[in-house]
Design brief:
The complex is a heterodimer of chains A (about 325) and B (about 270). Chain A is an alpha/beta fold. Chain A has helices spanning about 50-60, 80-85, 105-115, 120-130, 150-160, 180-195, 205-215, 230-240, 290-300, 315-320, 325-335, and strands at about 5-20, 20-35, 40-45, 65-70, 75, 90, 165-170, 200-205, 215-220, 225-230, 240-250, 265-270, 275-285, 300-310. In chain A, the strands form three sheets. In chain A, strands 6-7-8-3-9-10 form a six-stranded mixed β-sheet, with helices on both faces. In chain A, helix 3 packs across helix 4 (about 120-130) and helix 8 (about 230-240) crosses helix 10. The longest helix of chain A is centred in the middle third of the chain and has 17 residues, at about 180-195. Chain B is globular, with a radius of gyration of 19 Å. Classes of the chains: A alpha/beta (about 325), B mainly alpha (about 270).
Chain lengths: ~325, ~270
């Protein structure tokens, strides 16, 4: 087992504010237990206000916990913040860091200087990162002239500038168009694969993002971690099976599917209009997919389209919380 | 050694923003060159009208020179964390493994670049337009007084910064309250001794009070309107430098811990 990069024990955070001589309390985190191993791309999935950002800010040493303990790379976030900071970085979705009067390259250089990089090394790294996210042509554009997506790409580069050992990404693709989000996700995965001792903690309320990227996901709601496992294992909890939807041309009877190992049930629907057949095959496990395809080929069926549907993290969230995560996100976007 | 180097790099980077901003937005030249001359004009005309010695005009010019530094300390350095919170940089600065003083130090140096241009133009234009003799009798001493005043003043500014970190908008009101009274208490446009000895000594907790008085005595040594002997004033200023810079470091650490506890580094609405 890898050493823990992030460790939370009974972690809690309460915000107190005074209004009209009365103290109001809002509990943001309650008894959070969490262990993230070195090398993991770990996701925190939950609706707005679930406590994701509060947890990240405690781990980034910007906020003190009200109770419990949190450690990053074995160092306590309360008493050893100064030793943690050189090894971490954080990017928040929609942040507006930097100064409008500086260019992209100048702004990233400024932030790099806070981590003790030489100007030569930092400019080399900046050019490399800007090329990765496709912002190299705008390196000399003033920040005040950047679009939201370009600005978020720049923020994203800032997070990697000191080559942190632990990186926190708080909703990094929030409000970005599909293309930009795709580039950012691809680089996160690539960055993790470059070195085994890196850790990336991602908060998101996009299920597909968590599912696509994360080795493990913790589902958080109202300050509590409700479940923590790999996306596959979490989805397995829901108890639904994988279903293959295959459209074929030709073939005869498809009796080969009945009783095939790994196939739970199958349904065959012929379409007289175009002579094609729709097959719905419920699998016990994914390893049966190659056998099914081979059997269809032996039947002389040509595959026209192929789709595998699985339970999603949305289903997991629904089962755990009793409401849909997307409903929260939609409500937040409308408000 | 590496820590010092990292902090110097951070200070240079923060200063760069101020310097580059000065070069890229030249509109400030109009405000920072013409308006200060206008503001000292009123006082110089009064002194001329009542037939005061020429040196009084020089006193006003020296006060006008230092006004820019006071405003810079109060609104740019003191309010620095407030601005950074509004613009979204505060979290990133506090996430970085550097001394908070290095950011404020960079801010101070960068700010001094712009303010020095204002100060020089006020001195030169004031002396030329109103034909006021400005032969500095003891240039080295005046330079020492100037440097000590700035170090103590920016140390005080860093202490203000820690208040802004915790109190945000409330600190803004306090800064507003401080601006004009300090013009009076520190004797920006008149010899501070005119306030009475003990009031002037009390006002000496503001480094500008003794700094202005020492510089005036070193520029016009025969005028005899000084509060304390120059040597004493410079020694007190050196003490204020150590006190304020040391207190600023401690205040920033304390306020940062309080801000982390209360969530004020991360909440934008405060």
């Amino acid at each position: 087992m890898s050493p823990l990069s992030i460790e939370c024990t009974d972690l809690g955070r309460v915000f107190r504010s005074r209004k009209r001589r009365q103290t109001e309390e809002k509990t943001a985190l309650t008894d959070v237990q969490l262990g993230v191993e070195a090398g993991e791309l770990f996701g925190l999935l939950g609706p707005n206000g679930a406590g994701k950002s509060t947890l990240i800010k405690i781990l980034a040493t910007l906020l003190l916990p009200s109770s419990g303990q949190a450690k990053v790379l074995g160092l306590d976030v309360v008493g050893q913040a100064g030793s943690i900071r050189p090894k971490i970085n954080m990017v928040s979705g929609g942040e507006h860091s930097g100064y409008g009067i500086l260019t992209v390259r100048e702004s990233l250089w400024m932030f790099s200087q806070f981590y003790g990089l030489s100007s030569r090394e930092s400019l080399r790294r900046i050019d490399e990162l800007l090329a990765i996210v496709g912002l190299d042509k705008d390196a000399h554009t003033k920040i005040s002239k950047l679009s939201t997506g370009m600005r978020q790409k720049m923020n994203f580069c800032r997070g990697f500038i000191n080559d942190p050992q632990v990186l926190y990404m708080d909703e990094p693709t929030l409000g970005l168009d599909v293309g930009v989000a795709k580039v950012i996700r691809a680089y996160m995965r690539e960055w993790m694969e470059q070195r085994p001792d890196r850790t990336l903690l991602l908060t998101t309320h996009y299920m597909a993002e968590a599912d696509e990227l994360c080795d493990r996901v913790a589902i958080i709601d109202q300050g509590r971690i409700l479940a923590c496992d790999s996306p596959t294992a979490l989805k397995r909890r829901v108890g639904q099976d994988s279903t293959l939807q295959i459209e074929v041309a030709g073939g005869n009877g498809f009796s080969c599917l009945a009783g095939m190992r790994g196939v739970k049930r199958s349904a065959v629907t012929h379409r007289p209009a175009d002579g094609r057949t729709d097959l719905s095959i419920i699998l016990e496990h994914d390893s049966a997919v190659p056998m099914v395809l081979a059997a269809l080929s032996e039947e002389g069926a040509g595959i026209v389209s192929f789709k595998k549907t699985e339970p999603t993290l949305e289903d997991v969230f629904l089962q755990l919380v009793g409401r849909k995560l997307t409903a929260d996100a939609d409500a937040a976007e409308q408000s | 050694m590496q820590t010092l180097l990292n902090n110097l790099r951070a200070a240079r980077a923060r200063a760069y923003v101020r310097v580059i901003g000065t070069n890229r937005e030249l509109s400030w030249l109009v405000f920072d060159i013409l308006l200060p001359v206008l503001s000292i004009s009123a006082y110089i005309f009064i002194y001329k009208a009542i037939g005061a010695p020429e040196e009084y005009g020089g006193y006003v010019i020296i006060g006008g020179v230092m006004t820019g530094f006071w405003l810079n300390v109060l609104w740019n350095m003191g309010a620095n964390w407030y601005w950074e919170k509004q613009t979204g940089n505060l979290e990133i600065f506090f996430l970085a493994p550097i001394s908070r003083l290095s950011i404020l130090g960079g801010m101070a140096v960068g700010g001094m670049f712009q303010t020095s241009i204002r100060a020089m133009s006020t001195a030169v234009l004031g002396a030329l337009i109103f034909r006021i003799p400005m032969q500095v009798a003891h240039p080295f001493g005046a330079l020492v007084a100037f440097v000590l005043t700035l170090v103590a003043l920016y140390g005080l500014g860093a202490m203000f910064a820690s208040l802004f970190l915790l109190y945000g908008r409330e600190a803004w009101h306090y800064a507003n309250l401080l601006q004009e009274p300090i013009y009076l208490l520190s004797g920006f446009y008149f010899p501070v001794r005119a306030l009475g000895f003990w009031v002037a000594v009390g006002a000496s907790v503001i480094p500008l009070t003794l700094g202005l008085d020492a510089m005036r005595q070193l520029v016009y040594p025969h005028h005899g309107m000084g509060l304390l002997p120059v040597g004493v004033e410079l020694a007190i200023l050196a003490g204020l430098c150590a006190l304020y810079v040391g207190m600023a470091g401690a205040a920033l650490r304390t306020m940062e811990n309080l801000a982390r506890r209360e969530g004020r580094l991360t909440l934008k609405w405060q």
